[in-house]
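Reference record
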Amino acid sequence: TNNNNKTSYLEKRKNGNKYTATDKNGITWNYTYQDGKATNVYYESGILPEEVIIPETVDRYQVVNLYNARGGMKGNIFTNSAYGSNITVKKVTIPDSVTSIGDYAFDSCRSLINIKIPDGIKSIGNYMFSGCTNLIEAPELPATTLKDYCYRSMFEGCISLTTAPELPATTLANQCYQYMFSDCTSLTTAPELPAT
């Protein structure tokens, strides 16, 4: 009976369609169903706490991709405003299930001070933390192979950032680090670039 119920539940979802689900903390997330996974996940509604834990599953589906609420344009995962500002969130925990993060994911989250990127991340879009003016410590960036534009303008305008993260990637595609630390006026050290 349980298996039949689960099958019936799964059959209600169609590839490419958008759905919403509310997590145990009362936060509602928007997601796109794709082949049994939750992709293009972003905040829909609910009171955002200072520390946001992005769920590993929504509606039983594993969260594999975080997305910008404006569809990849200026904005961020928490707002569809063209200005993309968020002054509430200070810490974000991303589940290990996430393998890619879209453009502008945390753009202009001005109170953000702490975030951890999972080791299994394979792709990160442009402008991930641009305008995060209170971000002091950069998260670890464990990826060793980068796709086109990965990390482009990642910390642009992070005026409180004092130390650059290690950049262990040895295989790079086009424009991976372009403008990565643009306007980081407090940065005192530059990272080593092992890639050749």
